Amino acid sequence: MDMDRFGRRDDLGSASHGGADARRDDAEVNEPPTRLWVRSPQAATPASPEERARQAEPERRTLPWSPPPEGGAAGSSPGEASARPPIPGARPARRLARATGRLASALRVLASALGRAAAARRAREQAHQRPRKTQWKRRLRRWAWRIVMAASTLLGLGLLAFAALIWHYGQDLPRTSELKSYHPPEVTRILARDGTPLAELFVERRTVVPISVVPKSMKLAVLAAEDANFYKHEGLNYVGILRALLVNLRSGQSRQGGSTITQQVIKNVLLTPERTFARKIRELILARRIEQELTKDEILELYLNHIYFGHGRYGVEEAARYYFGKSVRDVQLAEAALLAGLVKGPSIYSPRVDLARAEERRSYVLQQLGEKGLAPRTEVEAAARQKIALAPPPDHAAELAPEVVAEVERALAAAVGPQASRGGYTVTTTIDPRLQSAARAAVRGNLDAYAARRGLIAPLKRGKGDPAPFEGAPTQGSERVYHGVVTKADDAAGTLTVRVGTAQGVVKLERAARYNPRDLPPSQFAEIGKVVRVTFAGGDPRSGRLELALGPQSALVALDVRTAEVLAVVGSYDAVRGALNRARSARRQPASTFKPIVYSYGIHTRAFTAASILETQPAALQGKYRPDNYDESDGQAPRRLREALAQSVNVAAVWTLEQLGPAKVVEWARSLGITSKLGADLSLALGAYEVTPFEMAAAFNVFAAGGTYRDPVLIRSVTGPGGQPLPLPNAAPARQVMGEAEAYITTSLLRSVVESGTAKRARSMSTPVAGKTGTSNAAKDAWFVGYSTDIACAVWTGYDDASPLGPGETGGATSLPAFIAFMQDAHKARPRTDFAAPQDGLVRVQIDAATGRLALPGAGAIEEVFLAGTEPTEHAELPSIGEAPRIVWPF
Fold first, then answer.
1. Among residues 661, 646, 649, which one has the least CA distance to residue 617?
2. Rounded to an integer, what distance in angstroms lies between the CA atom of residue 300 and that of residue 223?
3. Element (H, E) at 211
4. Are 339 and 225 in contact, with CB atoms under 8 Å apart?
5. Of 855, 850, 856, 851, which Cα lies nearest the Cα of 886?
6. Which of 554, 572, 592, 776 is catalytic?
7. Looking at the DSSP assignment, which residues form a beta bridge with residue 554?
8. Residue 885, by phi and psi: left (phi above 0), alpha (psi -120 to 50) or beta?
9. CA geometry: angle at 633 spanning 632 and 635, to 5°?
10. Cβ contacts of 18-24, under 8 Å, gap ≥ 24
């Protein structure tokens, strides 16, 4: 109720009690009315007298029931009324009546307002007087409902987010089905013919074994150390994951992992080991998939064959071999516990690094075995008392036959293709380990003897015969040998400083043991100013690393005569894998060792016999090519073929080639296994075209094998990763190149080289051998190729840069000693056997040594062997009077 309304009620109240007189008195007296203060809900502002007068006056004029003014008509004007004289004594009464009315009206209004306020207060009090217990229940229910709704919303959103996360990271995951056919990289082992290890090829040194051969103790030890509940969970250990999370959060770093064996298999096989959130989510997804597709044993097999055990060994099989020298099949509980403990940190817990820490870790694994009930307490306690007994560390010395490695790699690639790089193969070669050792020793001993007689063994002194040092800038990327000058010796560092023209480098004497058998310090190894042969490592003069190249190199190949299997192969002084295998790759001039190929073709075609008389005069040659004779036989009488070969007469060989035709001899050489490029010219007779030691050994093996050619064989068998034998590429079938009788006559001719020719040093051997020496121009290459009834062998010696070997160095002096040393060792356990002549196709007749014709009765004669039908039919002429008959003992 507003103040206007209160005023109107006040006026109405006054009119009802005082009538028109009161209003008129009020107008005449014009006294201000008493102010009333009534607080209402709408307003509390008091009305002023002027506002009340203005608001009440129009209302009185418009009220239809208001009485007209006293003493006049209704339409009388105010002026007329006011002009009437006042009634005596009326003013005090009217004032009293007006005040009383106003007071009564105010009290009624106040009583009404107080009543309404009291009613509102009672309503409020009743609302606040509800029980508190009911109020808190309502509030609790309301908040509980809110929490449930919020949690449900969050859970729904979380599930949607999780589903989206799984979908996102589940895209393009590796197929777990691939694990059924998964083959990790393994070791490919190269064995000798008797099973002796020769070399190993691997990206990761691993040998996969099936779970069935892994002993129970090994499996339980790994489970105790890594995942004791492996056979109970479904790929994920939720308790372990939570525990690891809490530990890592508490420490602020990654201290503990919660991965199961299944997860570790995924991380190592299908994914990468990086520590990222994405990789972990993918790992969790794949763990469940793998558990659904593989059995527990299959998962454990993958794990045991894949994990790393330190020192380059992967898988339990290689670990057992490395640490205990045995297969995993044979490890005991204590050994299994030690291996299982390595998985956590191979570089930390390796017994070859820290034995005490390894023993502590083993004790922990054994304790876990006992506490988790995986092994009887008695066995655990017995294993804990055992001392760690390690196998001797593997020998890191030079391999027995590193030359075989490249050969095997090529053969495997041809047999199985790209899969060969994954390893897991076992290759059994034809190498005889005893003969391989003998061959290496023979080559080294021969090269050491050369170095000693040529002054290449420390201490190296300056001399007048030293070559001039190199001047200028060394060529980048060249394997060239330089003559450098020693400028400084550092005993503390064990190095020599050598100047090579404008460049300078350092030689480490520890890599020059070949020339320093007395282990002299650098200051005593070579004088300052000594000129030495050096090469830059990798052909890079900027590297500053030099290698001594004082002496020559050598190669040796030995073949089984009957099968052409490679018994031994040496390609350098040092047994270093990856070094140049000169037996296979070095193409050098065979020199006079090619002459038997020429003469054997003459025997094969029946154009010549062992008794044929050959020209020894250079003038007898029709072409421009006229070589000299090494034995200075120029001007002497022509010689029989046997003599010419034994003495290695150059002109006789060239003249014979000229008669036979160079092109035909080239084809003949091809049939004997020579695949290198050969020119059809007269220099072919003296071995001017380069071949390899393998080729020469194979060619001479034809003579030893009765005329049958077989490709040299290095690999006997190949076994695949699963143990199944693999087929080898089909070898070319053996072919009969020449008859047995022809081969025997060739052997007979080569026997004369040993008995009376350039290889007489070989007569000291206990077993009969045949062969031929060879020395190229300026003695750049020295050869001996020969054979017994069992083994064919070729030896080459020379500098890689084709430098001369020096005065007096020939095939008989520089290579034959290695042949003799090897063949003597190879035949120690073999019975002495001579070259047997075939039953048919040969005839033996007495001939005149000077003419090669049939000997006259009573005259000096020798026995010679011929192919049937090629023996001489004419007799020699009588010698002049006074000439003594010459007696030559036949072979």
1. 649
2. 9
3. none
4. no
5. 850
6. 592
7. 797
8. beta
9. 115
10. 18/94, 18/97, 18/98, 18/101, 19/67, 20/66, 20/67, 20/68, 20/69, 20/70, 21/70, 21/90, 21/94, 22/94, 22/97, 22/98, 22/101, 23/60, 24/69, 24/70, 24/81
- Among residues 601, 558, 873, 802, the alpha carbon closest in space to that of 697 is found at 558
Work out the burial of residue 629: count CB atoms within 10 Å of its CB; fewer than 13 is exposed, 13-18 middle, 19 or more buried: buried
As a whole number of Å, the end-to-end CA separation of the chain is: 159
Q: CA 652 to CA 640: how far, in whole Å?
A: 9
The three-class DSSP label of residue 507 is strand
Residues 6+ apart with CB under 8 A from 828: none
Stretch (H or E) spanning 783: strand 782-787
Sequence-distant (≥ 6) Cβ neighbours of residue 686 within 8 angstroms:
591, 592, 594, 595, 627, 650, 653, 654
Task: Please confirm, yes or no, whether 592 is among the known catalytic residues.
Answer: yes
Query: Among all chains, which residue has been given the structure tokens 């299982």?
Result: 340
Q: β-pairing, 426-429 with 188-191? A: parallel
Per-residue pLDDT, 738: 97
Q: Residue 410 has what pLDDT?
A: 86
All residues at 6 or more sequence positions from 275 whose CB lies less than 8 Å from its CB, including other chains = 254
Round to whole Å and give the CA distance between 642 and 596.
Answer: 11
Contacts with 491 (C-beta within 8 Å, 6 or more apart), sequence order: 521, 522, 523
Catalytic residue, chosen from 14, 105, 186, 226, is: 226
Query: HSE on the CB side for 163, CA within 13 Å?
Result: 6
Q: How many C-beta neighbours within 10 Å does residue 874 have?
A: 10
What whole-number distance in Å separates Cα of residue 603 and Cα of residue 616?
19
Structure tokens at 427: 């290759």
Kindly tell me if the per-residue pLDDT of 19 is higher than 50: no
Q: How far is CA 704 from CA 65, 548, 668, 737, in A?
A: 163, 40, 17, 12
The amino acid that residue 439 corresponds to is A
260-281 pLDDT, tens digit per residue, is 887 777 776 666 565 555 556 6
Taking all residues of the chain, what is their mean pLDDT, rounded to a whole number?
Answer: 82
Nearest one of 761, 818, 800, 776 to 450, comparing CA atoms: 818
Q: What distance in Å separates the CA atoms of residue 890 and residue 865, rounded to the nearest whole number?
A: 9
Q: pLDDT per residue over 704-720, tens digit each? A: 999 999 999 999 999 98
Mean pLDDT of 675-701: 97
Mean pLDDT (whole number) for 431-437: 96
pLDDT band at 38 (very low <50, low <70, confident <90, very high): very low
Q: Decide: pTM greater than 0.85.
A: no
pLDDT in tens, 237-248: 666 666 655 655
Residues 304-334: tens digit of each pLDDT: 998 899 998 999 999 999 999 999 999 999 9
More reliable by pLDDT, 106 or 794: 794
**Does the pLDDT value for residue 170 go beyond 70?**
no
What would the two tokens of residue 688 be? 């001017």
312 φ/ψ sector (left φ>0, alpha ψ -120 to 50, else beta): left
More confident call, 208 vs 19: 208
Cα distance between residue 521 and residue 315, in whole Å: 45
Q: Average pLDDT in the 360-389 region?
A: 92
Task: Tell me how far apart the alpha carbons of residues 758 and 889 are, in angstroms, rounded to a whole number.
Answer: 17
* Residue 618 confidence (pLDDT): 86
Per DSSP, the three-state class of 308 is strand
pLDDT tens readout for residues 417-432: 888 888 889 999 999 9
- What's 885's DSSP letter? P
Between CA 23 and CA 33, with CA 29 as vertex, the angle to 5 degrees is 70
> What type of residue sits at position 342?
L
> What are 485's strand-pairing partners?
499, 531
Query: Per this entry, what is the length of the chain?
Result: 891
**Which pLDDT value is given to residue 59?**
42
